[in-house]
Every structure is written in structure tokens, then in C-alpha cells.
TrEMBL record:
<feature type="transmembrane region" description="Helical">
    <location>
        <begin position="60"/>
        <end position="77"/>
    </location>
</feature>
<dbReference type="InterPro" id="IPR008407">
    <property type="entry name" value="Brnchd-chn_aa_trnsp_AzlD"/>
</dbReference>
<feature type="transmembrane region" description="Helical">
    <location>
        <begin position="6"/>
        <end position="24"/>
    </location>
</feature>
<feature type="transmembrane region" description="Helical">
    <location>
        <begin position="36"/>
        <end position="54"/>
    </location>
</feature>
<keyword id="KW-1133">Transmembrane helix</keyword>
<protein>
    <submittedName>
        <fullName>Branched-chain amino acid transport protein (AzlD)</fullName>
    </submittedName>
</protein>
<keyword id="KW-0472">Membrane</keyword>
<keyword id="KW-0812">Transmembrane</keyword>
<dbReference type="Pfam" id="PF05437">
    <property type="entry name" value="AzlD"/>
</dbReference>
<feature type="transmembrane region" description="Helical">
    <location>
        <begin position="82"/>
        <end position="100"/>
    </location>
</feature>
Length: 102
């Protein structure tokens, strides 16, 4: 059963990816629909980042983790090097947890 499911999902994925270039010039989407699709993709990605960054399993990861994510986001927004972003986020979270903020 799992092998069959994997094969079906693989074939479906291939067909969807193959259909994109074939159907690209056959129809056009209205500008409003394109804007909604673009915005929905952004919102979905942001929700995925928020859930994976702010939760620990099935529960809230704590305010220290949220502060670390915020500091890391600000550092990335300021275009600091990736290593600096990670170090600042980790140091913020660790420092707050050391001070007793959960």
C-alpha cells in the first residue's frame, strides 16, 4: 500500500509539473487572480515560518523563543551576515532563558 501511494503521488507530481509549461500560453489569468495567488503564497509561507519558529512540538515555545525569532528577523532585515543572524537569535533566546524567561 505505501509503495502504491508513493507511486501515485510521484506520478501526480510529475503530471502537474509537466502540465505547467504545456499550458502556460493556452490561457491567462486576470490580474486580480494573480495578485491573490501571489499574496496567498506569501501568507502561507509566513504562517509556516511562524508555526515552525514559535512552537515546540504542539505548544507555544515560550517568550524567549519568540524574542529570539524577532531578533533574528530584525538582523536578517538589516542584511547582517547569516552567521550573525543565527548567533544573535540563539544568544537572545539563551540569554532570556538563563534569566528565567520561558
Amino acid at each position: 500500500m505505501p509503495v502504491t501511494a508513493v507511486l501515485i503521488l510521484g506520478a501526480g507530481t510529475f503530471l502537474i509539473r509537466f502540465a505547467g509549461p504545456l499550458l502556460r500560453n493556452r490561457f491567462t489569468l486576470p490580474d486580480k487572480v494573480r495578485d491573490v495567488i501571489s499574496a496567498s503564497a506569501t501568507v502561507l509561507l509566513l504562517a509556516l515560518v511562524a508555526v515552525s519558529a514559535l512552537t515546540n512540538g504542539k505548544q507555544f515555545g515560550g517568550w524567549a523563543l519568540a524574542a529570539g525569532v524577532l531578533v533574528g528577523g530584525l538582523a536578517a532585515w538589516r542584511k547582517l551576515p547569516f552567521v550573525a543572524v543565527i548567533v544573535l537569535a540563539a544568544a537572545t533566546t539563551a540569554g532570556l532563558r538563563f534569566l528565567g524567561v520561558s
